[in-house]
Write a structure and sequence with these properties.
By secondary structure, this protein is α/β, with parallel strands linked by helices. The protein has two domains: about 140 residues, Aspartate Aminotransferase, domain 1; about 210 residues, Aspartate Aminotransferase, domain 2 (3-Layer(aba) Sandwich). The chain contains 14 helices and 13 strands. Helix 10 packs across helix 11 and helix 11 packs parallel to helix 14. The N and C termini lie far apart (about 50 Å). The N terminus is likely disordered.
């Protein structure tokens, strides 16, 4: 669809959409606790308040008026609205959206529903770049499990290995579009081409780290299923799987005999209607960042995220440059000879350590100066990349409201430790 050029991104106006920023702290922890906009907070509040009420119909009259149909509780309409909002976010249709309380729960449900496809003579390909709580959902399936390994120097996921891992027995390939702590972006197109040339396997792509920074177009990514954690976009604590085609539901086992129809409900996990009522306001908020007033919500959110990407790509470049010029700072996947061939395609988030200074000390110094960051968890990947040897690390992730002043303030405080 013709979307036109992204409009100018006005960060001052965007900051006004987040009432939580009025407390004076500088939030650089969007990877774990993104700020909640006033629109989302109000939407969830209203959804909880009205969920048990009966929905109203527009008054109609005349001999040719259409029947209104049975009344529904307002809470039931929230699920439909949430599916439509997720569809607008990623460029899909609402009947292909499966809601769930979290992405690990949805992955676990999917692994059970995939039993007709996964036999003893079949294989699945998983990625060690992914969070363990995601890939563990498929690690115990009744199939041969093969692992795609990230580069320990750069933290990237090399695409060439999928040509070796995938073959005619492969039924599922699951990996993340980006790393939530390192900011590395996977070569999705290269990986998808390798898979398609070797197999008819289903592909499951987690876009949770990518979606807060870039417009998502389902068809362009080439995956069969997209996973997205809506909480990591500043929304309610819900997640969604989006399928390429509703015909895929025919291939899946139903999780409950109550939902045996070949629709999304057969693999859906119950979620709160009050939280579901916040998904529409979330996508409306993302569309309002820089999407303008014209066009459908899908057009506006795509336009808005394009403008956000341009703004945060520039700001992220400063983040890497400013911290990278400090001699004592080691940015995982960027600093050192092993990272010399690292790609420039990175998200505006990174994990760093200060030589000779424990991560807890760095984190506390930042906190004492009004900077909210997080201590990097000891994940298997970060451990193999040497985080323990340097005394731990701190993760920084930018949000739509961050400014160049925030980056300069961060750099000054880190420099005082070096």
């Amino acid at each position: 669809m013709p979307l036109g050029l992204p409009p100018q991104y006005d960060v001052a106006s965007v900051r006004g959409l987040y009432t939580g920023l009025a407390d004076g702290w500088t939030y650089l922890n969007a990877h774990t606790d993104p700020q909640i906009s006033e629109r989302v907070a109000a939407g969830v509040s209203r959804a909880f308040r009205m969920s048990a009420a009966v929905s109203t119909h527009e008054a109609s009259g005349g001999a040719h008026s259409a029947p209104t149909g049975p009344r529904r509780l307002v809470g039931n309409t929230h699920y439909d609205a949430a599916r439509m909002a997720v569809a607008d976010l990623v460029g899909a249709q609402a009947d292909r959206v499966v809601l769930g309380p979290s992405l690990p729960v949805l992955y676990s449900s999917l692994s059970r529903a995939l039993r007709p496809l996964l036999r003893r003579n079949s294989s699945v390909v998983l990625s060690k770049l992914d969070p363990p709580e995601l890939y563990s959902a498929f690690a115990e399936v009744n199939a041969d499990t093969r692992w795609a390994q990230p580069d320990l120097g750069t933290g990237e996921l090399p695409g060439f290995q999928f040509s070796e891992l995938v073959d005619g027995s492969t039924r599922l390939v699951a990996f993340s579009a980006a790393h939530e702590l390192l900011g590395t972006v996977s070569p999705v197109r290269e990986i998808m081409e390798a898979i398609r040339s070797r197999s008819r396997a289903w592909t499951l792509l987690d876009v949770s780290a990518l979606a807060p920074y870039r417009p998502i177009a389902f068809d362009d990514l080439g995956a069969d299923i997209l996973g997205v954690d809506l909480g990591l976009l500043g929304g309610p604590q819900l997640a969604a799987l989006v399928f390429r085609d509703t015909a895929m539901f025919r291939r899946l086992d139903a999780l409950s005999p109550v939902n045996s129809e070949h629709i999304a409900a057969k693999v859906e996990t119950p979620v709160s209607s009050g939280l579901a009522g916040g998904v529409g306001p979330l996508v409306d908020h993302l569309a309002a960042l820089a999407g303008g007033e014209r066009g459908s919500r899908r057009v506006r959110v795509h336009r808005s995220m394009g403008a956000l990407r341009g703004y945060l790509d520039d700001l992220g470049g400063d983040l890497y440059t400013y911290l990278g010029t400090l001699p004592a700072v080691h940015i995982l996947g960027v600093t050192g000879e092993a990272a010399a061939e690292a790609s420039d395609d990175r998200l505006p988030r990174l994990t760093f350590a200060v030589r000779g200074v424990p991560a807890e000390t760095v984190h506390q110094r930042l906190f004492d100066n009004g900077l909210v960051t997080t201590l990097a968890p000891r994940t298997p990947l970060l451990t193999e990349m040497g985080v323990d040897e340097v005394g731990g690390a701190v993760t920084v992730a930018l949000g739509p409201f961050n400014t160049r002043h925030d980056i300069e303030h961060l750099t000054r405080v880190v420099a005082s430790l070096a």
